[in-house]
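Entry:
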Amino acid sequence: MESQFVKALRSELSAVSTKLSAVCTKIEVVRTEMAGRLTELENEKDTLEALLRHIQALLTLEGVPVEFALDGAGGKQEIPSGKPSTSLGASLADAVHLFLSQEGKEYHYIDLTKALVARGVIIPGKDPGNNLVAHIYKDPRFLRPKRGVYGLRQWYPTSVSNAGIRKVKRSKRTRTKSRARR
């Protein structure tokens, strides 16, 4: 036979187990509700960030330097776009120069584009990578040591030249050969 003490403990065990089960159920309900609300807020945040990037891109295309954007906490953060400039090319080249100086190593243009976009630099156009290359290709601060790879000219000895540069352009070479045949 069980003592009254054991019966009381069993009764209390049953009551506490029931309460615990109810609390666990409530926790799951709240988690589900909060997860849904969190998803809604994250979607709203993504939409607003996309809108912010579009507005910044439009301002940049109009020649207005964009130096600040809102961060996730609602404060301002500086966009590392280099020195503000009225021309998109100069500010984009400055941003690349600043980034490469900070990183201290050469980057493939696709990786460079991804890293700059991750830092908040806006690179407009259908293909941001090609747009980036168009803005830095003739800038004397940069050197292309290998196909698709860009670094700062100061990192390389003077004997290294841009990869892929021909001494004579093809069109001139072809014309010269055709004139020699005559």
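The beta strands are 68-70, 76-78, 107-108, 142-146, 149-152.
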